Amino acid sequence: MSESVRSKRIYILPNLLTTGGMFFGFYAIVMGLSGKFEMGALGIVIAGIFDALDGRVARAMNAVSAFGKEYDSLADFLSFGMAPAILVHQWALAPFGRLGWAAAFFFVACSALRLARFNVQTSAPDPRISNRYFQGMPTPAAAGIVSALILFANDTDLFAVGKVEAHGFEAWFTLLLVFALGALMVSNLRFRSMKDFTGHRRKPFLTLVAAAGLITVLTIHLTTTLLAIGLFYIVSVLHSHREYQRLLAEGKEVERDEAEEFSL
User: Fold this and answer.
1) What sign results for the dihedral spanned by CA atoms 145, 147, 148, 153?
2) Which positions, given as ranges, span the membrane (predicted)?
3) Alpha-carbon torsion 182, 188, 190, 194, what sign?
4) How crowded is the C-beta side of 227, counted as CA atoms within 13 Å?
5) Which of 162, 188, 138, 151 is nearest to 35 (CA)?
6) CA neighbor of 147 nearest in space, from 75, 216, 221, 230
């Protein structure tokens, strides 16, 4: 096998994973427009798995490229910006009329701004800045919370498809959550990225035990666990941002200043 052919295969693999994630994002949109909300939410969850894999595969195979970064960003906008906004609008926000589609559009716009800011920051990386924090909630996390809420609500019959009351508590909660997730994506709050996590290398046995425990909990009630993890990630920003501020005061972190005009 020639080196050129091998190189092409290395670069194709992570981009194929990105394409797979984009397919499931598109699938989620189609399912949402068809009224199959649970299937659409599962599509976004699967897209998140592909998104987690493509970057890791590219780095592991030394196949990181500028094309791959841009392609991944466009795929993320479709899968974690457009797809969850359309899905949640069709599922619970449509009865609100203009307020409902305004909330969905706000989510879309904030996801685009979040991705654009991230691209600007990573295009000129500062070696003084660690990767332990995200500036603003990552778009896959926001989309995942929307999907987890839909799966949880459908599993527990909190929403009856086609009978959502615009002034019901669940509908108002969903509306406010969509606005909140959009604001969190473009905020200056620091969320842990877990990219600095090395516990699986230092204590692999305990990591396996923790993984087995997580799988057990997911087996007991998948949708409740997914929603709990998502809500916990939101609440965890209270600790991670305070930790970031402390490290910043100690000179162990450097504040990102690129594209700061896009920050709230």
Assistant:
1) positive
2) 12-31, 99-116, 137-154, 166-186, 206-235
3) positive
4) 17
5) 162
6) 230
Calpha distance 47→227 (Å, rounded)? 17
- CA angle in degrees (0–180, nearest 5) for 232-148-130: 45
CA dihedral 198→200→202→204, nearest 10 degrees, is 180
Rounded to 10°, the helix 222-235/204-220 angle is 120
**Local confidence pLDDT in tens for the 264 residues of the chain:** 444 544 444 578 889 999 999 999 999 999 999 999 999 999 999 999 999 888 888 888 887 888 888 899 999 999 999 999 999 999 999 989 999 999 999 999 999 999 998 888 776 555 555 577 888 999 999 999 999 999 998 888 766 544 455 567 788 899 999 999 999 999 988 888 766 565 556 667 777 887 787 778 777 788 888 888 889 999 988 888 888 888 777 666 666 554 344 444
Q: Which two tokens stand for residue 82?
A: 């457009």
Containing 45, the helix (H) or strand (E) segment is helix 37-60
Token pair listed for 108 = 């879309």
In terms of residues, how long is the chain? 264
Q: In this structure, what token pair is assigned to residue 113? A: 């701004």
In the chain, the amino acid numbered 146 is: V
Of 126, 128, 143, 116, nearest in space to 52 by CA: 143
The candidate with the shortest Cα–Cα distance to 132, out of 194, 189, 185, is 194
